[in-house]
Amino acid sequence: MDLWYTEKHSENVGITLKATRTLFSGKSPFQQLDIIETLEYGRMMLLDGLVMVTERDEFVYHDMISHPALFTHPCPKRVLVIGGGDGGSIREIMKHATVEEAVLCEIDGLVIEKSIELLPSMACDIDGSNPRVTLHVDDGLAYIREHQDAFDLILVDSTDPIGPAVGLFEEDFYRLVHGALKKDGIMVAQSESPFYHAEIQKNMYRNLRNVFPIVEMYQAFIPTYPSGLWSFAFASKQYHPVRDFDKARAAARPFHTRYYNEDLHLGAFMLPTFARENIAP
Ligand code: SAM
């Protein structure tokens, strides 16, 4: 019998993928974790029934949460990822030779453990083999409270604002992030779908503008996320992602990126009108 998995994007719309088998299904103290094998998108991780990553389209999300900030900051050395227990963001950060240390702070140890076991193409740098990577199983809020003025970049690779991630969309958290960044630091956070999550975006960008002098939204196309149109918030103390972007440095990158490139970096910040309106001050 065929196995079909549906994630509901709203009350009336969803995405359905044909699956062949369940590789893991279990509950942590924080959430339900399932990893299933799909026919078209490879292995797929779900948290509380929502798609987190698939092997086929994860390159879009992980390129775009990491490289725009890594190529805007002139010399990122210390990078923190909050969430991101699948390891995909850390894998991309590790492509940058300037980065001396990347810290992963993921609240759920089960996500890390099962990603290492079942999603090795993403978790390749969080399995203990990379001396530049440090893992902390902790709440991101608690971690940054203890690590002020410490990072060049902070990437918030979190779940939606429900469950353990609620606090990661609030102004108090952004103030802690601001303090945990060095004086020219940059934060990037996944900021949901402009198509389905206008209200979340409105609040999130208002909270960010109350804390950071530079706040911009950029977009990426991710087929398995609601509507396919996804967004990221770029919040910065000093560097602007378009005006201070060194296009030649990005063009000369000594590694391959399947989605990110120096032209797309600039284009991603050009928003459709309805998305601009979602975050209008
Ligand atoms: N790419 C995904 C997306 O946008 O749908 C997100 C990746 S998923 C691995 C995000 C991770 O954030 C989850 O593993 C979850 O446990 C973690 N997370 C949620 N709240 C957190 C918190 N307060 N501190 C640290 N990690 C958190």
UniProtKB/TrEMBL annotation:
<dbReference type="GO" id="GO:0005829">
    <property type="term" value="C:cytosol"/>
</dbReference>
<comment type="pathway">
    <text>Amine and polyamine biosynthesis; spermidine biosynthesis; spermidine from putrescine: step 1/1.</text>
</comment>
<keyword id="KW-0620">Polyamine biosynthesis</keyword>
<feature type="binding site">
    <location>
        <position position="106"/>
    </location>
    <ligand>
        <name>S-methyl-5'-thioadenosine</name>
    </ligand>
</feature>
<dbReference type="InterPro" id="IPR001045">
    <property type="entry name" value="Spermi_synthase"/>
</dbReference>
<comment type="subunit">
    <text>Homodimer or homotetramer.</text>
</comment>
<dbReference type="GO" id="GO:0004766">
    <property type="term" value="F:spermidine synthase activity"/>
</dbReference>
<dbReference type="InterPro" id="IPR029063">
    <property type="entry name" value="SAM-dependent_MTases_sf"/>
</dbReference>
<protein>
    <recommendedName>
        <fullName>Polyamine aminopropyltransferase</fullName>
        <ecNumber>2.5.1.16</ecNumber>
    </recommendedName>
</protein>
<dbReference type="InterPro" id="IPR037163">
    <property type="entry name" value="Spermidine_synt_N_sf"/>
</dbReference>
<keyword id="KW-0808">Transferase</keyword>
<dbReference type="InterPro" id="IPR030374">
    <property type="entry name" value="PABS"/>
</dbReference>
<feature type="domain" description="PABS">
    <location>
        <begin position="2"/>
        <end position="237"/>
    </location>
</feature>
<feature type="binding site">
    <location>
        <position position="164"/>
    </location>
    <ligand>
        <name>S-methyl-5'-thioadenosine</name>
    </ligand>
</feature>
<feature type="binding site">
    <location>
        <position position="86"/>
    </location>
    <ligand>
        <name>spermidine</name>
    </ligand>
</feature>
<comment type="function">
    <text>Catalyzes the irreversible transfer of a propylamine group from the amino donor S-adenosylmethioninamine (decarboxy-AdoMet) to putrescine (1,4-diaminobutane) to yield spermidine.</text>
</comment>
<feature type="binding site">
    <location>
        <begin position="139"/>
        <end position="140"/>
    </location>
    <ligand>
        <name>S-methyl-5'-thioadenosine</name>
    </ligand>
</feature>
<feature type="binding site">
    <location>
        <position position="31"/>
    </location>
    <ligand>
        <name>S-methyl-5'-thioadenosine</name>
    </ligand>
</feature>
<comment type="similarity">
    <text>Belongs to the spermidine/spermine synthase family.</text>
</comment>
<dbReference type="GO" id="GO:0008295">
    <property type="term" value="P:spermidine biosynthetic process"/>
</dbReference>
<feature type="active site" description="Proton acceptor">
    <location>
        <position position="157"/>
    </location>
</feature>
<dbReference type="InterPro" id="IPR030373">
    <property type="entry name" value="PABS_CS"/>
</dbReference>
<dbReference type="Pfam" id="PF01564">
    <property type="entry name" value="Spermine_synth"/>
</dbReference>
<feature type="binding site">
    <location>
        <position position="62"/>
    </location>
    <ligand>
        <name>spermidine</name>
    </ligand>
</feature>
<feature type="binding site">
    <location>
        <begin position="157"/>
        <end position="160"/>
    </location>
    <ligand>
        <name>spermidine</name>
    </ligand>
</feature>
<dbReference type="Pfam" id="PF17284">
    <property type="entry name" value="Spermine_synt_N"/>
</dbReference>
<keyword id="KW-0745">Spermidine biosynthesis</keyword>
<dbReference type="InterPro" id="IPR035246">
    <property type="entry name" value="Spermidine_synt_N"/>
</dbReference>
